[in-house]
Amino acid sequence: MHNKTMMVDNQVAIIGGRNIADEYFGLSGGGNFRDMELLVGGPVARKSSQVFDAC
Predict the structure, then answer these.
(1) Are 33 and 18 within 8 A, CB to CB?
(2) Dihedral (C-alpha) 19, 25, 26, 27: value to the nearest 10 degrees?
(3) What global pTM score does this model have?
(4) ∠ CA 36-38-39 to the nearest 5 degrees?
(5) Burial letters for 26-55: b for 16+ Cβ neighbours within 10 Å, e otherwise?
(6) Number of domain units in the chain
(7) Which residues on neighbouring strands pair with residue 16, listed in sequence order?
């Protein structure tokens, strides 16, 4: 896993991430994947920032 977090002023976070490859856009002849993100705000965003800083 290589999860990603984009934090904005410790108020809002986008957790998850996008990968760029044919397999993530439904273009692979073999298997395909789907990425998901979660938009969070308030205490959850601040906690996400704390967890990131602790690593």
Answers:
(1) no
(2) -100
(3) 0.64
(4) 140
(5) eeeeeeeeeeeeeebeeeebeebbeeeeee
(6) 1
(7) 4, 37
For residue 37, CA distances in Å to 3, 29, 30 come to: 10, 25, 24
Pick from 14, 21, 17, 13: nearest CA to 2: 17
Range of the domain at 29: 4-54
Are the C-beta atoms of residues 17 and 3 closer than 8 Å to each other? Answer: yes
Closest by Cα among 17, 6, 16 to 49: 6
Q: What is the pLDDT of residues 1-55, one digit of tens each?
A: 567 888 999 899 998 877 888 888 888 888 888 888 899 999 999 998 888 888 7
C-alpha 14, offset from chain centre: 6
